[in-house]
Amino acid sequence: MPYDPVAEEAHRAALSVQMHQLADTLPEALDALRWSADTTYASDRYNPRIRLRREDGAEIGIGEHRLSKGRLTLSGWLPDNTAYYERHGLSGGQITVSRKKKAWQIAHDIRERLIPDLDTAMAEVHRRQLTHAQDAAAVQATAALLLTVDNVHGNEPTAEDRRRGADTRRELRWGREPYGAPSARARISSYPQTNVTIKCENLTPEQARAVLAALQSTQRATAPAQT
């Protein structure tokens, strides 16, 4: 079918009107106290669309189906501030509905077919956030314990580390210059549980024996009693 710019312009105008109408009616049909509408792109010349935003940050994007002008695509989205490691592999769900449906019918479809998937994804995000916070706290506590030893030093996690979820790992060092002097590197990780890997370099035989003796001593102290 040949492209008709006049017909296409009329179609986009009608779609824009529908987006504004849905923005006005869907929040109340769902729950006006929890949902609001963002109409920033409702009048977009090429792709009219809206967002519904819930009080917890979850969103539903609504726009025209890319292969069918008679249908709308509704996509569940996790909050914009959700970190990659919190959202990786998750889907907020997606459904399509006929443009002929009334707002209350679309709201029903959202409640029955889309929100369950969105809520499941949100629950998993919250679980990951809690687990990550617990892991980060355990790593920080371990780092604080090691930093009580003289000459142990290391940088605190940065804001960027926390944003990327890299605050569940720390690296500390013992020893400084000159090059070739005895030194050690302690890497703290939360996976699969809080653990420390220590790599020593340029130790004297006496230092190496002291390290191994300390390990053996703590091994005896933590070993289960023999019966």
Automatic annotation (TrEMBL):
It comes from the Bacteria. This is Integrase. The lineage of its organism: Bacteria, Bacillati, Actinomycetota, Actinomycetes, Kitasatosporales.
